[in-house]
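Example 3.2
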Amino acid sequence: MGTMRWSLWIVFAVCLTAATVTADVRLPAVFSDQMVLQQRSSVVVWGWAEPGERVRVKGSWQWLGGATTVADDRGTWRVQLNTPRAGGPHTLTIQGNNEIVLNDVLIGEVWVCSGQSNMEWTFGRLNTDEARNAVETADFPHIRLFTVHKNIALEPQADCTGQWRVCTPETVREFSAAAFYYGRALHQALDVPIGLINTSWGGTVAEAWTSAEALRAHGDFEDVLERIQNPQAYEQAVKARFEKELDEWEKSLAAIDPGTNENWFHPLYDDSDWKTMELPSLWSGTELEEVDGIVWFRRVTNLPPSWARNDLELHLGPIDDIDTVWVNGVRIGTTRGWDKPRTYRLPASVLRVGPNVIAVRVIDLRSEGGFGGTEEDMRIGPPGADVKACATVARTWKYKIGYTGTVPPPPQAAEQAVNQNTPTALYNAMIHPLIPFRIAGAIWYQGESNRNRAIQYRTLFPAMIRDWRSQWGQGHFPFYYVQIAPYSYGNSEAVDSALLREAQMLALKAVPNVGMAVTMDIGEENDIHPQNKWDVGKRLSLWALAQTYDQPDIVYSGPLYRSMKVQGNAIRVSFDHVGSGLVAQGGPLTDFEIAGIDRKFIPAQAVIESRNTVRVSSPEVPNPVAVRYAFKNWAKPNLFNAEGLPASSFRTDNWPIE
């Protein structure tokens, strides 16, 4: 009986202890040491605690009080604190059943910096003297950097991953270059602390950064919103379709390529007459230099028993353009993309102790082909193992040309049901966790990935801006964006990106308190990521300094088309934002075209006629009706204002684009 009473006492004590354990007060990632809070405003501080737990928040700038609240039945809480003018460092103390003290907190101006790769592009990926100097001199203790780690979600998330860092040459190297240049310009002009929150992801579309509520109201995304309610079923259907299309593609290759038809991937195939090549290597300087078509590569790699009986990973580095890999005659996978490092999972069932035959069919669609990267990029080993724990598959391979000529491209790889371009996925995971952190405004560099839907972007982009403002609950906060730069997109004469730039220009009138930085002069014909991020950040800062911070006498925009008037055999085009006047940099004006009622545009002569007008004409068009300027994917136009800011591309017509 005594033993039973003792056992009951232990159970009671355990239950009592469990009942009295309380949850610690927690904060979202955007609240940490070295953060910046928006000056002279009512900032929201929020987090989680035990339901019913009393939470007190106090800033060291507050002489009395602070703010007190009680966690609701879901364990969430929030308070509002008034912040002083810019300064610091301060502390922010949060007390519940535990205490959190955030140190080195500055009060200043906080900006969200978002978009796709040109916003994401870090200094570590720039190769200019200016960028290297910016990094070396980036010792700004009053500029703070926060990068939201990449993530996707189907539902709005309460938190993200990231941490505030002081701006130093070490921390800025892997930070957004455009965002840094913007923040540095504000810091130097305003002499206040600057907080930059970089939440960006290369190659992404605007709808991924927009909430489900806003997309439903927009009306173009009902099908995809319904689809992501059941992602597993969608993914299975897409995968089945892809496998069918891939099988049909393989059959088409067998009709033109003896390697595919005769199974050059089979381990018993006799390759004794094949030539050898040292890999990795591109094909320039070899007999393959002029080959656009199919080339096969083979190599024998020995595996010890401990490896051959487990799954392995095969790394081949980037391959230009398409590769298919077989191991011991078993097809492993196909990858498309000249710059994508290849990584293939090899199941133990296809491996053997001792010799294993790796066969790679490389398809080069155009230009130079081959294996890029370094020897370290070509290796085999346990999944996730570093280079030193792997065996090399670089150096000597055998090769043979299978086919020279045009090759049909493979089907697009099966897209996951949810990825970074799924509508709402980035808003849910990388924007919503920041709300309602008080900000001064946002800067945005995106649009390349929506260029094939430029007409839709006319309404989608303003809808996204309105959505962010509605979700933040800060009214029409400033939203400044970059007009995408010229780039060939594989067809320099096409106009799809010009239409996107037009949609971005129309947003200036569609929503209030926005601004557009024009980049017509910094594009690179064969690189979608211009190296010049300094002008990007600087031009965005001009909008902020003039419009948000009311600094006088700043010309903050390049010339923007306002109106046109036919005058005899010419058209007079008028511009806004001409500053001290229009100028032609480096010679006569270029990239103007003119058309009559036949809608056929031909190159035109253009002359600056007054401070804000240009006269456009051509003897071949005696009765002109429309003008276009730099209205194609790639152009290097030269119309600027005297302050050195370029004019946007434009068209005076609204004719359908075929």
